[in-house]
Amino acid sequence: MSRVLKVAALAGAALLTRRALRGRIARSPLWPLPALETPVSGHSPRRWLPALIVSRTEPADGVLMLTLESPELPPWTPGAHVDVRLPSGLIRQYSLCGDPADAGRYTISIRLIEDGRGGSREAHAQLVAGAEVPVRPPRNRFELEPSSSYLFVAGGIGITPILPMLREATAAGADWTLLYGGRTRASMPFAAELAAHGSRVTITPEDEAGLPDLSPLAATGPDTLIYCCGPAPLMKAVQEAAPPTTPVHVERFTAAPAAGTAHPFTLELHRSGRTIEVAADESTLAAVRRELPATPYSCEQGFCGTCQHRVLAGEVDHRDTLLTDREREDSMLLCVSRAKDNRLVLDL
After folding, report:
1. Sign (positive/negative) of CA torsion 117, 118, 120, 123?
2. Confidence of residue 6 (pLDDT cuts 50, 70, 90)
3. Could you give the CA distance from residue 221 to residue 216 in angstroms, rounded to a whole number?
4. 230: closest CA among 279, 192, 180?
5. CA dist., res. 245 & res. 243, Å (int)
6. Residues 242-263: pLDDT tens digits?
7. Residues 96, 163: contact at Cβ < 8 Å?
8. Any bridge partners for residue 182, and if so which?
9. By C-alpha distance, which of 108, 111, 119, 126 is closest to 62?
């Protein structure tokens, strides 16, 4: 074989090897270990997945329901939520309210908040059928635990994470009841669908009957699990009405109230070589952005994860509702979390 042919053969073999290697790595992020059907690393919470809006409806006054489809959408379980990136770049979080059995399809519902921070207004105005919207893989800090009995409480748009829970509880043959309140009957999404469950569901529009009657909570037995999603006053009332020995699982729309009084602390930015004093009445994010104004952020409520950064030293007072216990070991969300003591060192 001539020298030219040998060189060509070697080059071709190298090209095929590189392609095979790329394919092997793509099939298993843990390569050279054996490929797994579901990689143990899971789906990166930072990865944006393109999804197509295939349906837009209005299940109630001021409520927009979107169905998103993509073969890249991973499976989810009742109680999960997703980050959605709006056309302006804003990131908002919405509970999945469809059926987990519908592979490659997510359903979300968005309440229009006229005096909010603008995300819902943008969603209602610009998210239309046929448009593409990026979403992050689902997270779930509101998991439905197995039980033979449940009592669900929902307020307004808080019904969205509860819907798939009802379907799962029904499929499992569990005994369950739902207390569902809202400002008006017309503003309560899925009320007609839920009414089909008969006496299991109590629907209470405030303009007709006042606030929901929470007295059934006091009679719950030790085997009944309570799940609640809605405005903060409703969740507080549910927690107060439930028996002391019965845990109440809640899903918040806003950041949890701060525990105790915030205090000032010193923040060191390791890579930047800067030291910042964080005042008691300002967030860690605001203090960092004084020195590093390009630091990214979005929700400012501890939901989206945009401002997550690595912690090198110090103990964190975690006030978010997003990070897992493992993530909290070495990172924090700057928008809501603070130093537990007097000093933190960040990898910034």
Report:
1. negative
2. low
3. 11
4. 180
5. 5
6. 998 888 999 876 665 555 578 9
7. no
8. 205
9. 111
